[in-house]
Amino acid sequence: MKIAINTGGGDAPGLNAAIRSATLSAISRGWEVVGIKNGYGSIYTDQPFIPLTAERVRGITMQGGTILGTANRGNPFEMPYQKSDGGWDLEDRSDEAVDVFRRYGVEALVAIGGDGSMRIANRLSKKGVNVVGVPKTIDNDIWGCDVSLGFDTAVTTATEAIDKITTTAESHHRIMVVEVMGRYAGWIALHSGLSASADVILIPEIEFSLDSISKKIMEKEARGETYSIIVVAEGATEREGSRFVKGKVIGQAEQLGGVGEYLEKELSEMTGKEARSLVLGHLQRGGTPSTYDRLISLRYGAAAVRALEDQDFNKMIVMQQNRIKRIPLSDVADKMKLVPLDSDTILTAKEIGINLGE
What we know:
The chain has helices spanning 15-27, 94-103, 115-126, 151-172, 187-195, 210-222, 259-271, 291-309, 329-332, 344-351, and strands at 2-7, 32-35, 50-51, 79-82, 88-91, 108-113, 131-135, 175-180, 200-202, 228-233, 245-247, 255-256, 275-279, 315-320, 323-328. It has 358 residues and is an alpha/beta fold. It has two domains: 2-149 and 289-332, Rossmann fold; 153-285, Rossmann fold. It is elongated, with a radius of gyration of 22 Å. 48% of the residues are buried.
């Protein structure tokens, strides 16, 4: 069998481990492995694939990023192109991609990506491409999967940053607002905020009230606790408000951000306390993957090749209760795993006195 591997969407720690595992597992079966560079970008070039050999993937398990490169714009079904008037529009070039697979003898695709990548993989499968998906996103919002590769490292990075912010907040008696990634799900904010003993955690699943947050800060002040730590997900919204969006590029999802700066200004005015905000941003995507992320990435990559060997196509590899399983791509596409409001983690936060903005 000849298989291709690609990595799409935002990068995440553990991608290289998954690439290495899938490559070596396939080579051990006598298969040929090629990589697609920059999401699906290289498919539309004169060199659509690069060979993936044991030598090429040696020593990459501990490396962050992805040796194949990635892209969060370049969906084969919505490829950006420049019009004659200088503007931009989208066109469907998926048939061209399928034709390239066939001409180069690629029999199956291991698509490593998040919810957007799984939607693309599902649509390609309907055009006859044999696909197995591997769940990747620091946001941890892929439906049907307990944990996606990259999440553990991102949460650890965020937690360590909040720990560091706490000491300076205490020294200066300030409100510190830390904005973390996660898009429309609050997994990073909830897990890092709870682990770092934040006073307030704001997630997209619960609309926040400035009055509620201000009351929490002033209650602490009355007890002699002169600083407060607020962790907010980039997709969090104020009650009856809208998401904070920095902008949008054609062919790309909207860029969230700005809620941290908004909270800094509003809470400073409401409480009379000095406030500062910090956006962790892409720091959460970078760096060496944690032991856990390396392990699950290796497990996912090998499991994807086992699925191909079984000809169990058009499935996504998932982790459920620490067991590797396969679920249909069609079950995952167009769904999102949000934080359950009755989860043990939410209940724990409430019971130990963390304000969730309600």
